[in-house]
Fold each of these.
Amino acid sequence: MSTRIEVLPDALQQIELAATWWREHRAAAVGLFSAELAAAFRLLERQPDAGRLYPRRLFPHLRVLLMPRTRYHVYYEHDDAGGVVLVRAVWSAVRGRRPPLRRGT
């Protein structure tokens, strides 16, 4: 059985901004970000614990999965009982800082 992916509004906004930036600034690979994100989501549907644990005070079960070609991270929590991966952020690894994570967004 596959796990359902749910993208929270903050993460959706980050995805839209990153995809737009990638299309506008990476002429040789305009679809790379979107393709790699889709592959990451497919992986998480099949193997929701594929990312490494990255616990935070408010998010003790937070995980992070690297998208190696674009160097973005998918920050998520896996609710095994509910059968859902809750994507909290999609954030560039080259920023040198963590994404702002808030409860419920």
Amino acid sequence: MELSLGEIVNDFALALKAVDQTQPRGASRKSIYRLGVGPLTEAETIKQALIYLKEYVRRSAYENVSPTPYPNSRQKCDMVIPNAWAIEFKLIRPFGDNGEEAEHWSKNVLHPYKGSTSSIGDCLKLRESDFVERKAVIVFGYEHTPPRIDLTIAVNAFEVIAVQVVGLKLGQRYTAEIGQLIHPVHQQGKVFGWEIL
């Protein structure tokens, strides 16, 4: 059963909500964060979401999904659904766990250079890779309810830079929203996905 990118975006949003309901607590070397999916690192969020997807959502579709090395490289792609999709994820959070605005949060999607770890850098890396799977990028993030900084503005800018400046060809944008998260700052989430054509 091959999943559409729209289904994957919706499933990932469901998984984020489910992970949030387990009241996870993220931590760094210096801090222990408040409960919720919002403060988790990108890698931890993807890991927890994949556990949920394999266990509870379209089990047969996600059972062989994992981070997978790029062909002829040590770097890993965040999620490969064999013979279907190679997907890179990017987390954006305008505000930290403490409620203060993060200074460079938008560079995760907007930095337009090959080799960068931004969404645009990931698109370029995927486009040039030898994966046989279709290629996509998914951006997910958290904001206040109502948004103090709307993630959609950064996503609109990503599309303009990716297409008009860098010359990428992106497919249709798929979007899913997540409401009522438990964190007092990361109160709601959004997930956006595009196929790299």
Amino acid sequence: MALSGKGRELLETLGKRISATELTNTGLTVGKHDYAVLVRGAVSQIDSGVEQRDSALLAGARGATSLVFRDERFQLPRLEVEPSPALVKELSEKLKPEEGDIVIIGAGDRMLDADIGSKSAALELLRVL
């Protein structure tokens, strides 16, 4: 199998828009393992994060939490709640967020479930771009 020209173009575009990392236990989610995916410049595409959570659940994760990076800080969409300083530090160091980025943290009983869930949620978010 080989990617078509269109497939290579899509993969290149996704590579510029998405980065991901395993996280230590965040205390923010419902699973044993957490995996974060950053989607560049997608702040205008998110509402409450429910759609992303549902996508992660359908992919086998235990849940997903979306965070908006705005005004040099993370917050839950539509709320003035900020995550713990330890999580903010880890996300900032590993993902290097910029204004208008979204981070989706998938949670799972296995790291693979958290990984696939967060990536599924990111693709759900990009679906509307």
